[in-house]
C-alpha cells in the first residue's frame, strides 16, 4: 500500500484551529478509505520564532524538502509586528516557497451555489463562477534585488532622508514556466487563459506579455489567450468575473487579485491554494497547500474560523500530489453538501441570519457528510 508523507505546519492565529479540522478529514480517509498517511508536524512563523528565534528552522526546511506534500495553516500576527524584518513570521513562508521553488500558485475561486446570495456581488454575477488564478510565486517584486531601506544620501530635498527599495524583476524562463502551468491547466478546463500585467508602464510587464505569447504560439496554439492590464483585470473581476477561465499573473498582482476573487465566492475563509514546483523523482510536483487567508488575529482563539479553505487545500493535495482525484472530488462534494444544508461559520452569515457553527462543528459536519455520501 502507498503511504503518503505529509508535513503539517499549522503556524499562527487560526492556523492551528483550521488545521485541527483537516486532521479529522485525514483521519476519516485513513479509517474509511484505507488510505495511509505518514503525518509529521512542525512549527512555522511566529510559533517557530518563539521556539527557535527564527520563523523556519533549517531542520523544518529539510523535512519540507523530503515529504510528498506540505500543508500549512497561516502565519503572522500583531505579536510579531515589530520584529526585525528578517525574522518576521511571513519570512518563514516565503523561504518555503523560494527554497522548494514552488513557482506556480494555483488559487481557484469557485462560487458554491449555496453561497451565491452571500457574495458582496449580485447572485446573477457570481452564480456558477469557477475561475483559476495562477500566480507566479518565487520571483518578481517579492524577491527582486536590490531591496532594503537605506539613507538617501546627497538628497537634501528628501524630508526624513530615507529610501525604501524593492525591485520587480522577471527572467524569460520564470515567465515561460508559469505560463506553461497555466496553459496546461486551461486545457483541462475551458481552454482559455487571460494574462495580466502592466505592459503599459513596466518593462517587466512587456517581457511578461511577450513571453506568455511566445509560449502560446509555440506550444499551446490551441488554447485561447488574451492579455489584460492588471488594473483593468481587477475591475473586470468585479464587473463580470465569469468572463475568465484561467488568469495567469505575477507574484504581487496575483496576491491582490486572488484576495479580490475570494470575496466573489462569499468569504476569504473559503479559498484554498496549491503551490507547485517542478516534478520530483516520483513524477509528482513538489508542493505546499495552504488557505489563501491569513492568521485572522481578530477572530483567533475563539473557535470562529471557517476551516473550509484549509480543508479544500487538502482536497487539492489529494488531487495534485497523490493523484487521488476521486477522493478530492468526494471531499469537495462533502463541503458542498454541508453548505447546501445551511451550515455556516460566522464569516458566512448573511442577511438570512441563523446561528453560526464553530470551527470544530464545521469540521464535524464535513466528516459526517463524507460518511453520508
Ligand atoms: P487575514 O486573511 O488574516 O484576515 C482578513 C479578514 O478575513 C479578517 O477579518 C479575518 O477575520 C477574516 N478571515 C480570514 N480567514 C478567515 C477564516 N478562515 N474564517 C473566517 N474569517 C476569516 O488577513 P490580514 O488581517 O491582512 O493578515 C493577518 C496576518 O496574517 C498578517 O500577519 C499577515 O501577514 C498574515 N497573512 C498570512 C497569510 C498566510 O499565512 N498565507 C496570508 C495572508 C495574511
Ligand atoms: C498570501 C499572503 C503572503 C503573500 C504573505 C503572508 C507573505 O498574503 O499567501 O497571499 O503576500 O504572498
Ligand atoms: Mn495574500
UniProtKB/TrEMBL annotation:
Function: Catalyzes the oxidation of 3-carboxy-2-hydroxy-4-methylpentanoate (3-isopropylmalate) to 3-carboxy-4-methyl-2-oxopentanoate. The product decarboxylates to 4-methyl-2 oxopentanoate.
Keywords, sorted A to Z: Amino-acid biosynthesis, Branched-chain amino acid biosynthesis, Cytoplasm, Leucine biosynthesis, Magnesium, Manganese, Metal-binding, NAD, Oxidoreductase
EC number: 1.1.1.85
SMART domains the record matches: Iso_dh
A GO term from the CC aspect: cytosol
Protease listed as a keyword: no
Pfam short name (any one): Iso_dh
GO terms under biological process: L-leucine biosynthetic process
Protein name: 3-isopropylmalate dehydrogenase
Species of provenance: Paracoccus denitrificans (strain Pd 1222)
Sequence similarity: Belongs to the isocitrate and isopropylmalate dehydrogenases family. LeuB type 1 subfamily.
Residues given in the record as Mg(2+) binding sites: 231, 255, 259
Pathway in which the depicted protein is active: Amino-acid biosynthesis; L-leucine biosynthesis; L-leucine from 3-methyl-2-oxobutanoate: step 3/4
Ligand binding (substrate): 97, 107, 135, 231
Annotated NAD(+) binding sites: 77-90, 294-306
Major subcellular location class: cytoplasm
Gene3D superfamilies, sorted: Isopropylmalate Dehydrogenase
Catalytic activity as recorded in UniProt: (2R,3S)-3-isopropylmalate + NAD(+) = 4-methyl-2-oxopentanoate + CO2 + NADH
Ranges that cross the membrane: none
